[in-house]
Amino acid sequence: MTDEELKQQSVKLKQIKPNKxxxxxxxxxxxxxxxxxxxxxxxxxxxxAPASASYLFSRYRIALTALGLLLIFGASMTVAQNSLPxxxxxxxxxxxxxxxxxxxxxxxxxxxxxxxxxERVKDxxxxxxxxxxxxxxxxxxxxxxxxxxxxxxxxxxxTAVLDISKKVQEKNEELxxxxxxxxxQPIIxxxxxxTLAETQDKILALITxxxxxxxxxxxxxTTNLEKISSYFQNSxxxxxxxxxxxxxxxxxxxxxxxxxxxxxxxxxMAKIESxxxxxQIHSWxxxx
Length: 288
What we know:
By secondary structure, this protein is mostly helical. The protein has helices spanning 3-14, 20-44, 51-80, 90-103, 106-125, 131-153, 158-181, 186-215, 217-232, 235-238, 243-261, 265-287.
């Protein structure tokens, strides 16, 4: 076919116009092919669970894991309560006792610690052939006993200090009996008895000191109020104080006045001691 014949044939083809039926069939065919492609594409993608279902499953799994761990921990703690030094569960028992002391309110902390000490002494008395472990725990008991007087003194309320000291004194006497009647090694027993005796002496001294402080409360307040008044009359000293510190002292003095009017001498004493602590801090800063 010549070039001229091709051109004529092309012109004739251009003049051909598709009828409506042909156009509809073509469109339908195209739409069918597109639909097939979409189905194939969807079928090839990995199935993903709805986000909400996946989230709930994850939370459910975490909750089950946490519950399982709690059950295991609870069962372990139950077994640990009956364990003795040298047992794999005994460290859990020590942990639970330490937590009781740590979580106890400040006024009761000393008594809770003494109860823990007594429990550990009884455990040591039942332990055999665990010399290294027994010595280590006995050392911890000794340190706890030595810290008792300082724990009692952390209370600012003199009446509370006196009350706790008397209870600690009674508890110490019970503990002394437990140690004496135990079958602990002689060296460990003697060491604990000596430590407990020293602790008891400090508690007795604290009882005497606190009793005297309570009985001399009015005189104590008079003397210290005069000292505080004299201190703040010195303008050079006062210049070293911040406005907030001066305000704090004024508030404390106002509370002292209220306590005295309410005949609450010990509460007033506690406020005066707080002021004295501020004075000591400034005296130390000035000297350095």
